[in-house]
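User: Can you help me understand a structure? I only have the sequence.
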Amino acid sequence: MPAHYLMCPPTHFTVSYEINPWMNAKVSTDVDRAMSQWDTLRRTYADLGHTVDVIDPLPQYPDMVYAANGATVIGGIAYSSRFRHNERAGEAPAYLDWLARAGFTPVEAAETNEGEGDLLCTNGYILAGTGFRTSAAAHSEAQEVFGRPVISLQLVDPRFYHLDTALTILRDDLIAYYPPAFSPGSQRVLQRMFPEAIVAGHADAEALGLNAVSDGTHVVHAPGATGLAAQARERGLEPIAVDTSELLKGGGGAKCCTLILRSPTKADDAAASALPALGAPRPGEADDGATH
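Assistant: Let's start by predicting it. Here is the structure, written out as tokens:
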């Protein structure tokens, strides 16, 4: 099914600070190579029939290429990010402004969260990571914003600082994840919810292979995630390797570069129509005609 993505070109990409274990400010970056890899990723999506919009990058935010962190968009609602690190704080209003102008309903976050990096939508609910970048309070806020159950998952390995570096949604009924990135309790939650999940190995995780994008038929992934690709193929998915190694220097791969824009579905419309009108009596409440 065709998807709608938002991406940001790495025009100003560099590693000038260190806010995750993948970043090393002493290692040089090649902007031209980053741009070529990003453009290959964009064209891959277009060739698969997906719509890709592009937001203009701001020169003072080299990490703006990681569009997935800019917001979470579900059912036509754009819930803004609120970055933990000051280095990225200005990205959030830029993304929310673009989304509002694109017709999405903007909601500004009060709680610290890093967008779809830690809030992954599947099958009517949201898998939500915490431990490094997104606060547990943001999970409650997201549930109120989207009206969908939120399942909190504790991340414990700083190399997998966002949920989308340790878990990918392949279909509504199928995920892939790397168990050591999660607390024991969160591992049990995932085992209970997804007993048929693909369990990624260490090599796939180290290649940031779980930072992948699936449309339910194709999986765009890092070339080094060969084990994950083989398992995805066994489940009837078509793996497509796209090199994002230059962007990996900042701690992101295909998914980090891709914000999914989800418009309202029939289920969203039905849920909204079932809500009582503002100021109307709730079911079971009588209007006593009293004035105040």
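Now, to help you interpret it: Residues 160 and 166 are 6 Å apart (CA to CA). The radius of gyration is 19 Å. Let me know which part you'd like to focus on.
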